[in-house]
């Protein structure tokens, strides 16, 4: 499977997918070690298991954070694909090296949306995580400030049926990519540098 390129997310959700936004806290100085391993082994390994790997990023505000996305057509596909990858040869062969770089890999938002991969040559991406007070208020904000290229995602409230990999619960967020007018609610902004490779 190829990287996800989503210039025009589907506004009514007919083509929306299950998306994980994963933020890893790493041991000091270990980020480049993980990125090299991830790009060499885990991108193709996950694709072979039926996982669409999205954008991978260095957090520009924290040298020990790695942020990435992956996408699945639905929850049943997610469960099968994760089981295939995490019981497969690629993960078994490299999991110890990967886990040795990590302090925490459980900061994961389970979302519904189009996925996201930055355009080639992009130097920096701003991702916004917002907790609006209610859907109506957010929809009014989004109608003015967000367009198709923002790749808007919403919390997926389905039960995580692959509990080996925890996700954050009890949150209802919206996530989008790229600059936009500031919403009137608290947000988390991530300044992200896309990971680029020679391929």
Please explain how this structure is put together.
The structure is a single chain. By secondary structure, the protein is α+β, with helices and mostly antiparallel strands. The protein is 26% helix and 30% strand. The protein contains four helices and eight strands; from the N terminus they run E-H-E-E-H-H-E-E-H-E-E-E. Strands 1-3-2-8-5-7-6-4 form an eight-stranded antiparallel barrel. The radius of gyration is 16 Å and the shape is globular. The model is unreliable at 1-14 (pLDDT under 50).
Helical fraction equals 25-40%
**Separation of termini?**
15 Å
What is the strand arrangement across the widest sheet?
Answer: 1-3-2-8-5-7-6-4
Mean of all residue-level pLDDT scores: 92
List the SSEs and their pairings.
Elements: E1 17-26, H1 31-48, E2 52-59, E3 65-72, H2 75-86, H3 89-99, E4 102-113, E5 125-130, H4 135-145, E6 153-155, E7 174-177, E8 187-194
Antiparallel strand pairs: 1-3, 1-4, 2-3, 2-8, 4-6, 5-7, 5-8, 6-7
Helix pairs in contact: 1-3
Q: Which characteristics define this entry?
A:
199 residues, 4 helices, 8 strands, 26% helix, disordered N terminus
Outline:
The chain is α+β, with helices and mostly antiparallel strands and 199 residues long. The protein has four helices and eight strands; from the N terminus they run E-H-E-E-H-H-E-E-H-E-E-E. The longest helix has 18 residues, at 31-48.
């Amino acid at each position: 499977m190829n990287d996800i390129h989503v210039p025009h997310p589907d506004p009514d959700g007919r083509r929306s997918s299950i998306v994980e936004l994963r933020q890893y806290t790493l041991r000091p100085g270990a980020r480049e070690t993980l990125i090299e391993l991830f790009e060499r082994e885990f991108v193709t390994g996950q694709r072979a298991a039926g996982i669409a790997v999205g954008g991978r990023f260095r957090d520009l505000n924290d040298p020990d954070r790695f942020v990435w996305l992956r996408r699945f057509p639905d929850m049943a596909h997610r469960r099968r694909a994760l089981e295939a990858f995490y019981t497969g040869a690629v993960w078994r062969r490299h999991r110890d090296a990967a886990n040795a770089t990590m302090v925490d890999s459980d900061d994961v938002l389970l979302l519904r949306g189009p996925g996201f991969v930055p355009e080639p040559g992009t130097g920096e991406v701003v991702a916004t995580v917002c907790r609006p007070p209610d859907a109506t208020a957010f929809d009014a904000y989004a109608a003015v400030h967000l367009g198709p290229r923002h790749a808007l995602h919403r919390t997926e409230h389905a039960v995580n049926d692959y509990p080996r990999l925890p996700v954050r619960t009890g949150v209802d967020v919206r996530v989008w990519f790229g600059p936009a007018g500031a919403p009137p609610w608290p947000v988390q902004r991530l300044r992200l540098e896309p990971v680029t490779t020679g391929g």
